[in-house]
Specification:
The structure is a single chain. By secondary structure, the protein is mostly helical. It has two helices and no strands. The protein is elongated. The protein has a domain at about 25-80.
C-alpha cells in the first residue's frame, strides 16, 4: 500500500525591511507648502474682517461677502489642485 503524499508547504518569502522614512524631508515639504499658503490665508482673514466691519451697511456688506466667497472658492480650487503640495 502506498503512503499518502506529504503536503508541501508554500515557500515563505523573505520579509522585507520597512522603508526608512525621511521625516526631515517630509517636514521641510510641509513647511514650504504652509509657507506658500500663508499669503492666501492672510488675504482670506482680512476679507472676513472687512465683511464684519461692513455689517451695518447692507450694500457694502453684500459686496464684501461676495468677494470673500469668491476668494474662498479660488483658494479651495488651488488647494485641491495641489498647488500647495504637502
Amino acid at each position: 500500500m502506498k503512503k499518502p503524499a506529504k503536503k508541501r508547504k508554500a515557500p515563505t518569502k523573505a520579509k522585507k525591511k520597512p522603508a526608512k522614512i525621511d521625516h526631515a524631508a517630509i517636514d521641510a515639504k510641509r513647511a514650504q507648502a504652509y509657507s506658500d499658503m500663508e499669503n492666501s490665508v492672510c488675504d482670506l482673514s482680512r476679507a472676513a474682517e472687512l465683511a464684519m466691519t461692513m455689517f451695518d451697511n447692507d450694500r457694502l456688506f453684500l459686496f464684501t461677502v461676495e468677494q470673500l466667497d469668491f476668494m474662498v472658492q479660488r483658494f479651495k480650487e488651488h488647494y485641491y489642485a495641489e498647488e500647495f503640495p504637502l
